[in-house]
Automatic annotation (TrEMBL):
Keywords: Hydrolase, Membrane, Transmembrane, Transmembrane helix. Pfam families: Abhydrolase_6 (PF12697). This is Alpha/beta hydrolase. The chain crosses the membrane at residues 39-58. Signal peptide: none annotated. SUPFAM superfamilies: alpha/beta-Hydrolases. Residues 85-358 form the AB hydrolase-1 domain. GO terms for molecular function: hydrolase activity.
Length: 378
């Protein structure tokens, strides 16, 4: 008989199952306070990893963009000379809409504007919008160039900014505000269609609590991709339900037009632009411009909208038209509503022929007649 057969207890002492059970009973996590210590160690590990990731995000995403934005400032850029040398006393100033910085491309798509006078374009400060600063900048340039008359043109949200700038110029300067041209402008937040309103609100939520969100290009990329998700998702398809070819095209478009383009607004500027709509100051500005003043003639207000309101998928242009009619003196006074055929939401770059035709046939004659009527009353 072998030794193990004579002493069965010895077999139990070397049983592998008992050995493993004993190890489990005595490991760190099961000793007194061991489980708490293990949870604490894991939590510390997660925090350290999070701090490392956050440090990389701050170093490579936020700080370079913050340094760039600190160098930006609002500017007034020349676009074209007046078609008639006798019109050097009038300046047309273009302001771009939500998501844009530089209005030069938009103003360049509307060469007919130089029939009114010299054409300038506003480049916003990427850190935010101060309409008083913009108004003062325009007035200084007008004084320097011996310009007496000013016409403001605002596309989409740029019209909200234009109305506030107009109020500053009309009530606080010695220049004459001839007119304000609003292209598919949401007069207040109710004029913004719900789906577009939710995208802006989503960005505001992120910028409200995420450190560095106003500068983060990664956040901007994420929000812009989410806003275009219907272009690369396949409804009803099994997970992930993504058209990867379309996803690549959309990603390249966002990177080209919204992340690395010099004319793309920063998150902070978009926040300021959207807040200008949320503040709903357009109606108050309209009332201020329409208020009788013995020393000032109220400016003409022009509202350009698609002939088919459904073609504007961002702004309820019918709602904006009703508000304008209520607060801007009505269509029998200083308000003109232009229904431009074939246009969409504030897209003169995409539809230059239609826009220029509408401006030449309707906007210019109205402004000329309005300006002459003002001169005759004087």
């Amino acid at each position: 008989m072998s030794t193990f057969e004579r002493h069965p207890s010895t077999v139990a002492d070397y049983d592998d199952a008992r050995r493993r059970a004993r190890l489990r009973e005595t490991r760190v996590g099961l000793r007194r306070w061991g489980r708490v210590r293990m949870m604490a160690m894991r939590a510390v590990g997660v925090v350290l990893v999070g701090l490392i990731v956050f440090a990389q995000y701050w170093k490579y995403d936020v700080m370079p963009e913050r340094a760039r934005l600190e160098q930006t400032a609002p500017d007034l850029l020349p676009v074209s000379l007046p078609a008639d040398s006798r019109d050097w006393d009038t300046a047309v100033v273009d302001l771009v809409g939500l998501g844009g910085v530089n209005a030069v491309p938009t103003a360049s798509a509307l060469p007919v504007l130089n029939r009114l006078g010299v054409v300038w374009a506003v480049r916003y400060d990427d850190a935010g919008i101060d309409t008083k600063v913009i108004a003062d900048m325009i007035v200084r340039a007008a004084r320097y160039g011996a310009v007496r008359n000013i016409v403001l043109v605002g596309h989409s949200m740029g019209g909200v900014v234009a109305l506030e700038v107009a109020r500053h110029i009309h009530l606080g300067s010695d220049r004459r505000l001839v007119g304000v041209v609003l292209d598919c402008t949401p007069i207040d937040l109710h004029a913004v269609r719900p789906e577009s309103r939710s995208r802006g609100a989503e960005l505001l939520r992120w910028t409200g609590w995420l450190p560095g969100a106003r500068e983060s290009r990664l956040l901007r990329f994420t929000v812009e991709m989410a806003a275009r998700r219907e272009r690369f998702t396949v409804p009803g398809a099994p997970l992930p339900g993504i058209d990867f070819g379309a996803l690549r095209e959309v990603a390249e478009e966002v990177l080209r037009d919204k992340i690395f383009s010099e004319n793309a607004a920063s998150n902070g500027l978009i926040e300021s632009q959207f807040l200008a709509i949320v503040a709903g100051g357009g109606t108050a500005d309209l009332r201020a411009l329409a208020r009788p003043n013995p020393d000032r003639e109220s400016p003409a207000i022009v509202f350009i909208r698609p002939g088919d309101a459904a073609r504007d998928d961002v702004v309820d242009v019918e709602y904006s038209r009703r508000v304008l009619a209520e607060h801007a003196g009505g269509v029998d006074g200083n308000l003109l509503v232009v229904r431009a055929n074939g246009t969409g939401h504030a897209n003169p770059i995409q539809r230059p022929r239609e826009y220029n035709a509408a401006i030449e046939s309707q906007v210019l004659p109205f402004l000329f007649r309005y300006q002459q009527a003002v001169r005759d009353r004087r």
